[in-house]
Specification:
about 270 residues, alpha+beta, 3 domains, about 25% helix, elongated
């Protein structure tokens, strides 16, 4: 076998080739390849990347290589920072970059390094998520942002960089489903909306908590009226069961909405 190459066999008997090497006592796998020569070429590329400082996190995708871009990033970080991480992460002072692709660099606080070292970020229809305990979890959930939240409406990036997920850069505007904050004459108010054949305005409230509870109450009224729809429930933080019950009873709901529920035709939903 050529240096760095090991032969392996699939369950159906097909021969393939694995490439790996040891670096400062660390065993590093470079992947599986169809031919012995490709596996060897990957081995040579890995050795070169560990010596060639002209290849950086910001140009590593410019040259076609046998090694996958992800493996290249692992080796570049190992070369520059002396740490081998199994996900495409590059360490900076005080934060790290996660390179989903050579053109997609997401920034995170160093406090999240352990989590993203063991959880691979995936992307589907523009949404970033990880597989955690068999479930697909949006990375927004780590900031208390709901999966259905909309950037620009429910949360903002303080510096305008939508690739920067450091905690200080995330500003949460609307934490609860159906609640939209707005400021008029210097006063912040909270509008509650619910979707039933279009959006109904439930009311405008002085606090985010009241607006969130109003949404829950509106959803309950819809279910009582026979509307079979799965409305997400707002879980209110820092409110005792008694406080919640008192607010739920007191919060006012739009008469237009209650009239619609009372007069609706069941066939229309």
């Amino acid at each position: 076998m050529l240096p760095g190459v090991f032969q392996a066999k699939q369950k159906n008997g097909t021969i393939y080739y694995r490439s790996n090497f040891n670096h400062k006592g660390k065993h590093i796998s470079l992947g599986s390849f169809a031919t012995e020569q490709l596996a060897h070429d990957a081995y040579k590329e890995a050795q070169q990347l560990l010596q060639d400082f002209s290849v950086t996190p910001y140009n590593y995708g410019a040259t076609e290589r046998v090694l996958s871009p992800e493996k290249q990033m692992l080796l570049i970080n190992l070369r520059d920072n002396g740490i081998y991480i199994k996900n495409p992460i590059y360490l900076h002072k005080g934060y790290f970059s996660y390179f989903l692709t050579p053109a997609e660099e997401y920034k995170f606080d160093i406090d999240d390094l352990f989590y993203y070292s063991s959880h691979k970020i995936l992307k589907r229809q523009g949404h970033l998520y990880v597989n955690d305990y068999g479930m697909q979890c949006s990375i927004l959930s780590r900031y208390g942002i709901k999966p259905y939240a909309v950037a620009g409406r429910d949360y903002l990036f303080a510096n305008g960089d939508s690739w920067d997920y450091r905690y200080a850069n995330i500003i949460i505007k609307n934490r609860y489903h159906g609640v939209v904050s707005f400021t008029k004459a210097g006063v912040t108010r909270y509008k509650t909306l619910i979707h039933l054949n279009g959006y109904f305005k439930i009311g405008t409230y002085a606090s985010e908590t009241k607006a969130a509870i109003a949404y829950n109450k509106a959803a309950d009224l819809a279910h009582t009226a026979g509307i079979d729809k799965n409305f997400p429930e707002n879980y209110i933080e820092g409110v005792s069961p008694k406080e919640y019950a008192d607010l739920y009873t007191a919060v006012k709901i739009s008469k237009k909405y209650t009239d619609y529920l009372a007069n609706r035709s069941p066939i229309s939903d």
